[in-house]
Prior knowledge:
InterPro entries: CoA-transferase_III, CoA-Trfase_fam_III, CoA-Trfase_III_dom3_sf, CoA-Trfase_III_dom_1_sf. It holds the Pfam family CoA_transf_3. The protein is elongated. It has helices at 16-26, 55-61, 74-84, 98-102, 106-112, 137-143, 164-187, 197-203, 210-215, 251-260, 267-270, 279-289, 294-301, 314-319, 321-325, 362-365, and strands spanning 7-10, 30-35, 49-50, 53-54, 65-68, 89-92, 117-122, 191-196, 233-237, 243-247, 308-310, 329-331, 337-339. A hairpin with a 2-residue loop joins strand 3 (49-50) and strand 4 (53-54). The mean pLDDT is 96. The strands form four sheets. It has a six-stranded parallel beta sheet, sandwiched between helices. Strands 9-10-11 form a three-stranded antiparallel beta sheet, with helices on one face. The protein is of the alpha/beta class.
Amino acid sequence: MKLEGVKVLDLSLFLPGPMLTLMMADHGADVIKIEPPGEGEPTRHIGYAKNGASVWFRNTHRGKRAVQLDMKSAEGLAFFMRLAAEADVIVEAFRPGVADRLGVGYQAVRAINPGVVYCAVSAFGQDGPYRDRPAHDVSVQALAGVVSLNEGQDGKPAMPHMPVADALSSLTALSGVLMALLRRQTTGEGDYLDVSMYDSTLAWTPNVTGKVFATGEANSPKDERSWGGAAMYNLYECADGQWITLGGSELKFARNLLTALERPDLIAVAAEAPGPKQAPLRDFLAATFRQKPRAEWEIWFAGLDVCFAPVRTLKEAFDDPATEARGMMARDAEGSEIVGTPIRFLREPAQIDPSLPAAGGAADASAGWR
């Protein structure tokens, strides 16, 4: 596997860091999770559980080893530094400054291991005016301006459906870690990576910053292409209260759909700018899709070259045979569901290890690296 032989120490909790190291573990890295003493990783105890483990923990910590360490004790610090001396990658997600105060920051580790790639994931980065501000995903999204974009037709923002700041910072960190490991092959030197959830979120807004940068004005979500202003990129309710989506604003898709619906006269409306000028087409489509239940529209759209999809529940998505066919749904020996890895190589593919580290598993890592 691509990362076989890579040794990773993970000091992070919850989602961004653990997802980063999970993707590395799936591709062969030896990951040792350092847990706080007592209850350990919080996600062991959060949310729904099956077969003795929380679903969240199972799908962020499979295939890793774990050890509980009191990082404030001399014994805990010594144990950590023994592992750190041989680590290729260290991931931490403390508030800025905490790792240094504990004696496990980059400079302390680099003194004994100059080749280490040290990745710090935080809400707002290691410097800047928000450096010490506490935050989880929704707060970061709010400050980054993207919660305001998640506006319903009632004009009110809704809670984000995905942990965007967590996810984007995790993927940013993975990219940075791999870049640093690649560069180390040439220089022999590691590096320090400062990944901010806030920065990572802002970095993924190029497709929606047009109005902000071009006019200096805030977005008007209901009138803009990505959030309801475009008739062909929108949500529509069906007769049974279920919903469907149209997801392609290209004129060819409007032509295909409106020809099939015997309303070619509205093709010109689809060519108008998103917003009020497309209201006649949005109204027509809304009235049309309310005439049949979702299942009938799924049959009607079959074979039609239009970006159409039903709005499914997460359960429906994971129950879809297509999800299992792509390896994104698997099960362990006890029947517990496992979310697969999206990184698929032709050669040396991922090998998912469904085993979970035991709580308080000092013995799991006491022998050091494999």
